[in-house]
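[Q] Does anyone have a clean structure-token version of this?
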Amino acid sequence: MSQTKPATKSRTSKNSVSGTKSRGRQKTGAGKTLEVVFDDNRLLSALLGKHDEHLALIESHLEVVATPRGNIVALAGAQEECETAKQVLDDLYDRLSQGLEVGPGDVEGAIRIALSRGTKKADSKHSYSGSVRIETRKRTVTPRSAAQSDYIQALLSKELVFGTGPAGTGKTYLAVAVASAALMAGKVDRIILSRPAVEAGERLGFLPGDLREKVDPYLRPLFDALYDMMLSDKVIRGMETGEIEIAPLAFMRGRTLSNSFIILDEAQNCTQEQMKMFLTRLGEGSYMVVTGDPSQTDLPSGTVSGLSQAVGLLGDLNGVAHVAFSDADVVRHSLVARIVRAYDQLGRKKSK
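[A] Here you go.
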């Protein structure tokens, strides 16, 4: 995408109103109108979205009514919600002014981060359009939740990072993005992808083919993320030259991994012994990321997950970071967050 000349910040004016109508939706009761004025009309079409779909998302999530008029968006509703909606629009406008694209997922990410600023856990450093970003060959990746912002900063500054939490929070995707950027920048010589070969009761021996064909299904999410960040011929060539290596966890023993970006995915399926073995492979000039969801272990009943033990034992060490995601950080379909929440509630009931 071609770079757009940075635009001036939006301006705001306020007036008291009641019940404003927008795209067929009626908001009842008295509230406030907050008018957000944008200086660069060239960015407004992308800001509002096709058929104003981005405004519709803001209305739905924040319970405001957003009405575009020329270069103004009027926000009607409770004052706090209007201020949050304004922050979302400002963040998206800044993003566009920096030459980045805005889609529905980006809008939801901006909403999620804006809402996090209003919680006790929020930090002013969480900015959707701020400097926390990953530049890869094919795309620019930015955080879509406060936890993702913390995670990216940890990936860029620590030698060992644990990312734990439910599916759909971006743990693996962001790790691969940072690994791709590091390889492209010459910060590391290779990317090493690994997973324990234990999932949903299956074992490698049940799959046909050679070792490469056996492990491919287990590493497919990592490959998908790689192809999202790198040109396909670069990925294929990297596999042939060893710049990108698939290393099943069982084959790690005895190795020292230097000048590498190493990702261990689905680490909740590691035993304590496997996790210790893996972590002690870290060599000079290397970075290691361990991701997993402790609530979805496929280890035999009664076996303690090496991931849970390692986080508790090592999480506070110098050079180590642990970022815990929750269902609030799920960036897949909104139904995924509700599914995760339902299973969490079931787990809590069983534990009682």
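[Q] Thanks! Anything notable?
[A] Confidence is low (pLDDT under 50) at residues 1-9, 13-30, 120-124.
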